[in-house]
Amino acid sequence: MSMHISVVSIEGEHLDEIADILRKCEYVIEDSFTVPTGDQASRELDWNPDCNRVAKVAYVADGWTFIVDPELVLMVDDVWLKYSQKWNTRVVGWVCEGASGSYGLTVFDSGSKRREVFSGEGEVGVNNGKPLPEESEMDWSQAWEDDVLEIAKRLGAEYDFLADREYLVFHLDESQMEVRGACPGFNSREKPNGAI
Fold first, then answer.
1. Which domain covers residue 35, as residue numbers?
2. Tell me: the pLDDT tens digits for 87-123?
3. What's residue 2's pLDDT?
4. Per the confidence metrics, is the pTM higher than 0.85?
5. Cα gap 26→181, rounded to integer Å
6. Residue 9 domain-assigned?
7. Is 120 inside a domain boundary?
8. CA 135 – CA 78 distance, rounded (Å)
9. What CA–CA distances, in Å, run from 113 to 19, 91, 108, 152, 180?
10. Does residue 195 form part of some domain?
11. Which H or E run contains 21?
12. Rg for the chain (alpha carbons), in Å?
C-alpha cells in the first residue's frame, strides 16, 4: 500500500509555536491535546467528522519539529518563508501521494525558498531552484516514496512517525477558508505554480 501523507519538518524545537502557525494558515483550532503513542496519534489523524474538520499531529524528534499533514497542504504554504526567517533555520516539506503518483519537496532556508519540485504521474510539473546535493541521483519523473523519504533523511529530517513519544494533536476547522482542495493530486488550497 502506498503512502498518502505530507510532512513539514522544522529544524529545531518549535512545538510551542505550531498552534500559531496553523492559525496563520487559516485554521481554527477546535481542540489540542497530547497522546503518548504513535498508534494513538495515527488514529487521531483519521478524525474527520465532516468535510470541514481535519486533524494534524506534531512531534519533536532528533532536533526537528514535525507536522504530519494528511491533507497534503501545509508544505506549499508561504508561511514558511516568514517562519524560516524568524527562526533562521530550514523548513523541509515533502509529499507522497502514491494513488496519483504525486511526489514533491520544498525547502525553505532562513527566509528564502531554496527548492520546490513536484511530480505527478511521471511528469515534473514544478522544478524551481537548484537541485540540492541531497537529491543526487534523484529523477523526479521516476519518484517514489522511498526516494522522497531518503532525501528527507539526508537533509537531517528523518521521518519515523509511529515511534512511541508524545504527540501534539490538533482538531481543526477549515470551513472559513476560501478555497479548499484546489490542487488535484495534492489536495491543496493553493496550487503551486506549474503544478500538475
1. 4-173
2. 999 999 999 999 999 999 999 999 999 999 999 999 9
3. 82
4. yes
5. 14
6. yes
7. yes
8. 22
9. 22, 9, 4, 16, 23
10. no
11. helix 18-24
12. 16
